[in-house]
Amino acid sequence: MTGRCVSGGRVHVVGAGLAGLSAALATMQRGMPVTVHEAGPAAGGRCRSYFDREIGLVIDNGNHLLLSGNRAAFAYLEAIGAADTLGGPPKPLFPFMDLRSGERWTLRPNRGRLPWWILARSRRVPGTGAGDYLSLLALRRITDDRSVAEALRPGLLCDRLIAPLAIAALNTPPGNGLARLLGAVVRETLMQGGAACLPRFPRDSLAASLIDPAVAALRARGAELRFSRRVGALAIEADRVIALHVPDGTVALGRDDAVILAVPPWIATALLTGLTAPVAFEAILNIHFRIDADPGPAGFIGLVGGIAEWVFVKPGHVSVTISAANRMVDRPAESIAAAVWPDVRAALRLPLTAPGAMPPWRVVKERRATFAATASQDRLRPGPRTGLRNLALAGDWTQTGLPATIEGAIRSGRRAAELLLAS
Ligand SMILES: Cc1cc2nc3c(=O)[nH]c(=O)nc-3n(C[C@H](O)[C@H](O)[C@H](O)COP(=O)(O)OP(=O)(O)OC[C@H]3O[C@@H](n4cnc5c(N)ncnc54)[C@H](O)[C@@H]3O)c2cc1C
Hints:
By secondary structure, the protein is α/β, with parallel strands linked by helices. It has helices at residues 18-29, 71-79, 134-139, 148-151, 156-170, 179-188, 206-220, 265-271, 333-348, 375-378, 406-421, and strands spanning 11-14, 34-37, 49-52, 57-60, 66-67, 86-87, 94-98, 104-107, 199-202, 224-226, 233-237, 240-246, 249-252, 258-261, 281-289, 300-304, 310-314, 317-322, 361-371, 391-393. The strands form 5 sheets. It has a 7-stranded mixed β-sheet, sandwiched between helices. Strands 10-2-1-14-20 form a 5-stranded parallel β-sheet, covered by helices on one side. Strand 12 and strand 13 form a beta hairpin. Residues 14-20, 37-40, 45-47, 61-65, 230-231, 262-264, 267, 284, 286, 366, 369-370, 395-396, 404-407, 409 line the site of flavin-adenine dinucleotide (FAD).
């Protein structure tokens, strides 16, 4: 693919998840007209919110956590005027509880780059020594295919911090989660000092922070957004895409038009013959309970030694995340909610409920939440370039050097736009 293929043309973005929205914004920022084609009735993809009748509230498909070191994500939020819609503690703090022992602690990195916090017993994981944290330093230099479990010394730090972080960041069990992808996250956040580790999450909903303002910003700049419009095929001639097949006909592309394909990998490979992409995925479960609870100092708590992994306290409800959840995604929703409820009660110090009694709940199962962040899947991730000169790829599953995250998705969209528009 050569640059400048769209000078004077229009960019068609297929898919309005974060990668597609970011690609559309980056394209418009360079003065190019954009049409977004989205199969679903609304934008957001795997990062969406909806009104749930069981709970009686707007809920997110899953808790999404950002860290202040996610530079592309925060630039995107600034660009769409939504930076002030995120909440989170004023300091970098991560409360944890071990459900087996009842022990509680708060990890509190200091703001600056010099990590003196690891010398302060009260700021680190109980039972760990300052020397244990060298393994975190080692993580960021890993370039081979070792798994997280292979790369780290077993011990309390691993059990109580690194394994929970790895599972959350990679959505893959430490036994085969790729250490260097976790290293990339650590390098861009923890290793930059506490100021890059402020936990941030939408105050109201994912849609209100990350999606609706982007759609509004795109519309305000003149973008055309077409929902419920699944692109069923790309018509290709020589080295160019010449048309998109959509349910109501064909969208013909002009000579200078280009396409950014920002769909999930299983759709991208169906649309583009010969493309390789990850084929193994991990589920994420989110279990929402309609209760009011004290959000505590951070608004969330990390749990070890139970089934629930992270509990977020939101307005009118509490939401639990279980990552790398292929092992339990096929269990009936009721049994998942019942298994998680005692962990939530313990974590939030809620009063005992009668056996079998739970507040209204909803289990959201995202079966293909992210690609499995293993060495074999990472090798299948393509870059943004294709063999076609007016087609670029975007998505959290493309080769971003990061695991499948908001940060990766947003970067990939921007990169695809830059590639097509490069002069
Ligand atoms: C439950 C859950 C929790 C998560 N938690 C976090 C977190 O805490 N922190 C974090 O950083 N990341 C998190 N993630 C990951 C993050 O949500 C994703 O990395 C990101 O949303 C992926 O965006 P995307 O645009 O690459 O893909 P998608 O969101 O999958 O977007 C692809 C879009 O393409 C559309 N599409 C598909 N086929 C077609 C077609 N033929 N024509 C037109 N459109 C089509 C889809 O409808 C979709 O809107 C989480 C993900 C899940 C599921």
